Amino acid sequence: xxxxxxxxxxxxxxxxxxxxxxxxxxxxxxxxxxxxxxxxxxxxxxxxxxxxxxxxxxxxxxxxxxxxxxxxxxxxxxxxxxxxxxxxxxxxxxxxxxxxxxxxxxxxxxxxxxxxxxxxxxxxxxxxxxxxxxxxxxxxxxxxxxxxxxxxxxxxxxxxxxxxxxxxxxxxxxxxxxxxxxxxxxxxxxxxxxxxxxxxxxxxxxxxxxxxxxxxx
Length: 217
What we know:
Elements: H1 3-36, E1 39-45, H2 57-63, E2 64-70, E3 89-90, E4 105-106, E5 122-128, H3 132-135, E6 145-152, E7 162-176, E8 187-193, H4 195-207, E9 208-215
Antiparallel strand pairs: 1-2, 3-4, 5-8, 6-7, 6-9, 7-8
């Protein structure tokens, strides 16, 4: 047999072997699917993910693998795409070879809301009047929810308009103003406010006669 014919025969044999291997693999996959049920895509951790470190796009591409496994073996909350983990941080180290679960991830600490505050709120100090009632007793007022009531300066005869400027805001702290620094009963309240609430109350400090806190519940 000539060299050319031997090369052609080798190529034909290689092609047949590849086709046979593919058929075997397809048959095995079909048997697995029939035996264990439908296959699902699931994210598997290739390299241990450290606690508290946000998953960057490069990390997701290099360290998170997408595999197809029988649905019956997939734990609840398993991610089906590495992209779903980008920007989130593990609450504890996730070892290599593990499924990556949604419950294992949280927004990075720097992006989370401050303790005791809802998302979108920030601590703001506001000077308030008549806070003595909130300071009575052994238990401090911090942690309570309060309404902020504004009493405006009168434009003519009368006592001025009184209205609720913010409702059910978290009271984070309350400290009385030192004697001689202001009127009796004046205190500095630290409130958990949204941006719009903060701007409204800071403006009210300038033009209003007084701001008062009313405890809810």
